[in-house]
Write a structure and sequence with these properties.
- This protein has helices at 9-40, 44-48, 62-68, 71-103, 110-122, 127-137, 143-147, 154-167, 170-178, 183-191, 196-212, 215-220, 229-239, 256-286, 288-297.
- It is mainly alpha-helical.
- The longest helix has 33 residues, at 71-103.
- It starts with 8 loop residues before the first helix and ends with a helix.
Length: 300
């Protein structure tokens, strides 16, 4: 028989305040996204005049059409996909393999490694030493310059280590070892298959980080052929160096005002183009968050 819990006056007040706060927070987050989507498909003259408040007006896909005619967008997409896939694989490899020994009780000296890794959370070599290091290693102006700096975050290693400790019983590891399983086979055949939720969460975190990353490319990459999408979009959004002659045919955009309106439309379209892949992927991995990140964060 289910017990009937009578809500007190304080409970009702708390739930009401909580509902108002969450609703307001949801609107604050949702409104900019809806506005950008509306502005990207609205008449650019109405956008420039500030007549777009929420819903689109004078719907047009001209901004997306012009944007995808800009060849550097496709080059940026290609490079970003490469950086995201390769960077996520490298980051997962480093994080999973570093977290596993730190989760083992029989790993001698793990406290010293934890102390060493913890120091990296608060102190770094700095921009100039890192620039000199990458130059000396000969990886500046290469794909590795975008992937290797910051490839593994110790906070994520701690989360994965805690997941190993709380979700994979020591008895299972001891049983496997008694059956002659080596440490490498134990990790690959038992630990990794049982860690799919945390692997999915880490893949999403690292993937989103790589997708949005532009600072490493801004500092360490000068070859335009290696520019990620975010650096190309930065030029459009901030520097506004896009060559309009490449986007138009003769006779179009005759007045400077029209070019400004189109540039505004391109900015909103560029924002949607850069965030859409992440928005589409997130729902497929969201289900792993409860079992992955929450279990890993407990006792972290």
């Amino acid at each position: 028989m289910n017990a009937i819990v009578k809500r007190t006056k304080d409970d009702i007040i708390f739930e009401t305040i909580n509902l108002v706060f969450v609703t307001g927070f949801f609107i604050i987050i949702l409104y900019p996204l809806v506005f950008i989507i509306s502005a990207s498909i609205s008449d650019p003259s109405l956008v420039s005049q500030g007549k777009i408040v929420l819903l689109p007006k004078g719907i047009t896909l001209e901004g997306y059409k012009r944007l995808f005619q800009y060849n550097d967008i496709w080059m940026g997409y290609r490079n970003t996909i490469l950086y995201t896939l390769a960077g996520t694989i490298v980051s997962l490899f480093l994080t999973l393999t570093a977290a596993y020994p730190l989760s083992r009780k029989d790993f001698a000296g793990k406290h010293y490694f934890v102390l060493f890794f913890t120091v990296t959370m608060f102190f770094s070599g700095g921009l100039v030493p890192t620039f000199m290091l990458l130059s000396d290693l000969g990886i500046r102006n290469t794909v590795l310059a975008q992937i290797l700096p910051g490839a593994a975050a110790f906070w994520y290693i701690v989360v994965v280590r805690t997941y190993y400790q709380s979700s994979i019983p020591d008895e299972l590891k001891e049983s496997a070892m008694m059956d002659g399983c080596s440490n490498t086979r134990l990790f690959i055949s038992i630990v990794l298959p049982l860690s799919k939720p945390i692997i999915a969460v880490m893949a999403l975190f690292y993937g989103v980080s790589q997708w949005n990353s532009y600072f490493n490319a801004l500092i360490y990459i000068s070859n335009r052929d290696l520019f990620p999408l975010q650096l190309i979009l930065r030029e459009i959004l901030i520097i506004n160096q896009i060559d309009m002659s490449l986007l138009t045919t003769d006779g179009e955009l005759e007045a400077f005002a029209k070019r400004v309106e189109l540039a505004t439309l391109l900015k909103y379209a560029a924002i949607i183009v850069s965030t859409l892949p992440v928005i589409l992927i997130y729902p497929f991995l969201q289900k792993y968050f409860v079992k992955g990140i929450l279990v890993g964060a407990v006792k972290g």
